[in-house]
Design goal:
Length: 207
């Protein structure tokens, strides 16, 4: 009788090869993203990052010239994540900037009341680094300027009676939600950011 074919015991149960470990630079980047966001950039030292990432300090400096450059990289990654969420909300409501913004803010409201939410990493970095020449602050400021520009374009598209004033009001509301979420957490006012934004928009509509 022919013997039955057996699966080698060394093969993974799923039949898929084991995932390769991330390169050192990617592990550093991922670890820094988590630690900088949770604890703040200034509070996290290079030694803590390399220990958590399981790499050596020379490997960090081969990929990033300094901690400041690593911080700027973290913020550029954060900026890309932010716009991916924002653009997804816009794509869900083509040609309707009011619905686009409210879609984004509803998602933000949901995140803002979850455990571990620390507001906007770019806002936090701007507070940590008041020096205009610091690379981390430069990334944060550029992001906020772009957010203000895009909000203004959206309020123009909404037909607001004073689009610039509405855009600035919405920006203040968003930044307030980022900060207040860290104070109040679940049940805090950040959970109502979309509702408040809609009321503010309505107040700026003609008639």
């Amino acid at each position: 009788m022919a013997s039955k074919t057996q699966t080698p015991t060394s093969a993974p149960a799923t039949g898929k090869p084991a995932a390769k470990p991330l390169p050192a630079a990617d592990r550093i980047r991922k670890t820094a993203r988590e630690m900088f966001y949770r604890d703040g950039i200034r509070a996290v030292g290079v030694d803590a990052i390399v220990t958590q990432a399981g790499v050596t300090k020379p490997s960090l400096y081969r990929s990033f010239s300094s901690k400041d450059e690593l911080a700027a990289t973290y913020l550029r990654d954060y900026d890309a994540e932010f716009w991916a969420r924002f653009d997804a909300a816009c794509a869900a409501h083509p040609g309707d900037p009011r619905a686009q913004l409210l879609e984004y803010l509803r998602g933000m409201a949901g995140r803002a009341v979850q455990n571990g939410y620390r507001g906007c990493g770019l806002t936090n970095a701007a507070v940590e680094y008041p020096d205009s020449d610091h690379p981390a602050r430069a990334v944060a400021v550029a992001h906020k300027q772009e957010l203000r520009r895009r909000l203004n374009a959206m309020t123009v598209g909404m037909g607001a009676s004073d689009p610039e004033a509405l855009a600035d009001g919405l920006l203040l509301l968003i930044e307030g939600a980022f900060v207040s979420s860290q104070l109040f957490g679940q049940g805090g006012p950040a959970g109502r950011v979309a509702e408040m934004a809609d009321k503010l928009i309505q107040a700026h509509m003609p008639g």
